[in-house]
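Give me the fold.
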Amino acid sequence: MKREWWHGLLGYQIYPKSFYDSNGDGIGDLPGVLQKLDYLESLGVGLVWLSPMYPSPMVDNGYDISDYYGVDPRFGTLEDLDRLIAEMKKRGMHLILDLVVNHCSDRHEWFQKAIEDPFGPWGGYFYLKEGKNGCPPNNWRSLFGGSAWEKLPGQENLFYLHTFAKQQPDLNWENPALREEIYRMTNWWLDRGISGFRLDAITNLKKDLTWADLPADGPDGMGSIFRSIDRMIRRDGGTKNGIGVFLSELKGRCFAPHDAFTVGEASHVDAGLLPEFIGEKGYFSTIFAFDAINGHIRGACYCEDDPYMDPDQWKQDVFRNQAVLKDFAFEANVVENHDRPRAASLFIPKEEYGFASVTALAGLQVLQRGLPFLYQGQEIGMTNCPFLPEEYDDLSTLDNYRYSLECGYSKEEALEGCARMSRDNCRTPMQWSDGPNAGFTSGSPWLKVNPNYPEINVKKQEQEYGSILNFYRRLVNFYKSEEYGEVLTYGSFEPLYEDQEKIFAFRRRLGEKVLTVFCNFSGSERFLSLKEDYSEVIFVNLPQVTRIGNNLILHPFQLIVTEK
């Protein structure tokens, strides 16, 4: 594998609306991020992904962009962003932004001009189709619920496509003029000093232009548009046709000339296509390892998903994912982000939450082969938040609640599903202290603060040597250390003890350097009969390591790293 400048870094996602509010308006902002750079540096962060801060009506919390060339006044100014870039560079840190180009906001100038003249040049920037006797062109269901088609304002039988909310019209990548606009904007940001992008919903760009109906998969008679997207990736993923044409052009025109780091939000990419998507010749530097953490998702509504991630299924999914990657590329290893529930609540049953379980999860994520990406608050063990029904903000959650009722679930069941899976769980304000509003704002926070903030907060954990936060710091120092950084970055990944329930073990090997990771990811003590001898213990989350003969006694959620 060709060595790249971003190898061995720690990624960290900031959701700016919820990170830190500098001016007391209840909304996190860029000056707030700037004030917390020393904190990020102390954690060992080298790569910061900043979720959208562009001008937006905020229907989907910034993922509906109305102007690609600015900063929303809620978050600050373009000058604030320039200062942030400069201060990060002084610390050897890199900033990447969200590139949201599958869709824009219906308030964007392009869409407003398309409304005025649907059959003119701006109408060609979107997918506009004639309906069937006033009904949508096909039965596709959007990912946020309801038809993926909406009537264009002022038109009786002309519809536009929206994969997500109706306020997020999809951009027509088949149109060369639209692509030129995207490339111009992308290079403008790279020239400004950012180091790259996270590419939002990037595998959605290629549409099935036959516009054929999908098999119904719900009581509404519709089929999820995701099925169409998935089919297009699998069938037309290569460079000769399909989405590869767009992505190759994007890389060649923008990313490659700037040596930019890019991480794609891409799932269900077939193993045979991975070398086209990531690695030295791939469209992107890396993609998020979603296939390894989506084992709990069972259906179209939250009620159908498993309440917890089964640790053995997660282990097997990780092992399968690592085997597919071999040594030609890295994936970005994640366990949570702004679209998922908190990992401490999904991977760990409530009664087993604590230092041991949270740090075991941290070790398993960071010590795998790949680029570890944390999400704000993960490093202090933030959990899902108890919401009242009227307190939810997320559009997707509200649509999922309605769809769950349509599927026959009771209100209680639908609300229980939202409590477990809502995206609002990860969007609650960062818990900085035990002061008012968790130290996030001096005003009224835009979203409810998790009531457990007096116990789970940065200030408290800064003062405790044995805290989750300080474990993360030790873990990151270990991951980046001069002695072990090479093997933990470039070493091979070899699964061990695959048949042992709740035992998650693997070996990292590079030349003569060999590390072995053992973890009992369960709340009960486990005995592991060792197949070979292991020498020095070099890293643990719990201090007591007990071995009797060939048996290693693993305490609940104990993580042990040995050097052979």
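The domain at 109-161 is CATH 3.90.400.10 (Oligo-1,6-glucosidase; domain 2).
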